[in-house]
Specification:
binds heme C; 2 domains; mainly alpha; globular
Amino acid sequence: MLANHNACERKGAPKMPSGVKNVTMKKAILFSMMTISAFAAVSPRAGHAAGEGAGGDATKGEQVFKQCMTCHRIGPDAKNMVGPVLTGVIGRQAGTAPGFSYSDLNKHSGENGLVWSEDLIFQYLPDPNAFLKKFLTDKGKADLATGSTKMAFKLANEQQRKDVIAYIKTFSPDKK
Ligand code: HEC
């Protein structure tokens, strides 16, 4: 009996230090989690998780926009050319620049709820035709998702898209 009792006590003995070790580990994990979330809170990327178009450099975007200028103008005195005026395009219903003759695909997208945001222009630029068709199809208007857009231009590069959108945004100052 006595021998058993001693054995029990000896078994129990190491529990204390191992318990202490555990707490230390937990503290360490908790601390690193807090550090990670504190970093996420101040990281500029975190705020844009849902807004893929955000985070560009408008100065670099002005250079990228030179490609758009084959067809578009932007600014207070801008006129429609091959493409519609892009002044104020962020927050504008698609297909509604006054005096511009749009394709049905572009016009129908606007009539079915497409309002340009930074995020949507970001998604549109790599493949405008596919974007508009998908938009109409997702709205249950697959019958209108035909023909093609007049915007025969694609911009795939992610950073260039962000930068050009930041530039366009400087001409749509009130819009997000
Ligand atoms: C080769 C000519 C051309 C180039 C280059 C071009 N676009 Fe376009 N874009 C057009 C045309 C034409 C339309 C009208 C499309 C339609 O009616 O289907 C258009 C439409 C748009 C629209 C939709 C406008 C609205 O009012 O609904 C946006 C946004 C746009 N372009 C952005 C850009 C940006 C940004 C660039 C440069 C990265 C660019 N485009 C380069 C010709 C061009």
